[in-house]
Design brief:
By secondary structure, the protein is of the alpha+beta class. It folds into 2 domains: 214 residues, no CATH class; 80 residues, Immunoglobulin-like, CATH 2.60.40.10. The chain is built from 4 helices and 8 strands; from the N terminus they run ααααββββββββ. Strands 3, 4, 6, 7 and 8 form a 5-stranded antiparallel β-sheet that branches. A 3-stranded antiparallel β-sheet has the order 1-2-5, with no helix packed on it.
Length: 326
């Protein structure tokens, strides 16, 4: 069967509707950002909990979850500091053990020989006379020195610290320090899990509040911002402005032009007069992609940037361009 012929002029045209990207809520990936958001949410609940009849996620719930996260993070950070200190103790004792191994080796070379041989294995040397520095290698060799000197007390050299007692004390200190590191490392894992659990709980609480607010606030209701949240009906923040160019068109006037930024409703033009302005200040809000700045100060060096704006907020500022007036 042949296909029917369609008159292209009469056939319905396919239309495409441009999708508007709306603002998404903040994606929280750090402890700092989540604790800041939690504090902002509490601030919003202080103002609006009663007016909005918030019942599922009251302020007290957010306060309890935020306190749990802050407490958990403090405990975790303290645990990290303690673990770092205990590791430093192990490194210090291992260094002392390495020095004991070296001085014992050098003292016994006339007896055992200047080169490695099987006789050196009684002190833990293996294939060479090099003294180890890793704690797990130092510890058994310090123990071997203790045992050897206990069996051969006439070879002890107290002035150099080469005694069974000294080696035994160092071995026990190093052994306990390593155990303390392992214990704290395990404890830190528990503290990390506790902190992450508190983070998940607060994030879940905030998401639940967002859901409840979605039933009470219109997508463009500015009261979303009281909670530190984005207005879900607002457009996604515009892209940053690119391609900014500036040229003088008079002693104290400059013409600007830039590329259109996706999702921009209008633009903000900012200037900073070097030696005068500590920060950039806005000098215009054009809807088009060009602008003329007039009445600039004379004999001045001026940096200019442009940003794009819509109802979702302000995008990143452009790279600065510099002009010098006459």
């Amino acid at each position: 069967m042949s296909r029917p012929v369609i008159n292209e002029d009469l056939a319905p045209k396919r239309t495409t509707t441009k999708k508007v990207k709306h603002m998404k809520q903040k994606i929280i990936k750090s402890i700092g950002a989540l604790t800041n958001l939690g504090a902002e949410v509490i601030g919003g609940l202080n103002l609006l909990e009663t007016d909005l009849h918030i019942v599922h996620i009251p302020k007290l719930k957010v306060e309890v979850d935020l306190l749990a996260l802050l407490t958990g993070n403090d405990a975790f950070q303290s645990g990290r500091l303690l673990l770092s200190a205990r590791r430093e103790t192990v490194r210090t004792l291992a260094k002392q053990g390495c020095e004991l191994i070296k001085v014992t080796r050098d003292t016994l070379k006339p007896r055992f020989g200047a080169q490695f041989s099987n006789v050196w294995e009684i002190l833990g040397f293996n294939d060479s006379l090099e003294a180890p520095i890793a704690p797990e290698e130092v510890k058994p060799m310090v123990r071997a020195i203790q045992v050897y000197m206990a069996a051969n007390p006439t070879l002890e050299v107290p002035a150099l610290g080469i005694t069974a007692a000294a080696a035994g004390t160092l071995y026990e200190a190093l052994n306990q320090a390593i155990i303390a590191v392992n214990t704290q490392d395990s404890a830190l894992g528990v503290l990390r899990d506790t902190r992450e659990g508190a983070m998940d709980m607060l994030a879940t609480t905030v998401r639940s509040l967002v859901d409840e607010l979605g039933l009470k606030l219109a997508p463009l209701d500015p009261r979303w911002k009281a909670f530190g949240l984005n207005m879900p009906g607002a457009d996604e923040t515009p892209d940053g402005v690119e391609g900014l160019k500036a040229m003088l068109i008079g002693p104290t006037a400059a013409a600007l032009k830039w590329e259109a930024a996706p999702r921009a409703e209008y633009y903000r033009v900012w200037i900073r007069v070097l030696g005068v302005d500590a920060e950039y200040r806005a000098v215009g809000s054009p809807a088009d992609i060009d602008f003329t700045i007039e009445n600039l100060p004379t004999n001045a060096t001026i940096d200019i940037v442009v940003s794009a704006v819509n109802n979702g907020g302000e995008g990143a500022r452009s790279e600065a361009v510099r002009i010098v007036t006459h």
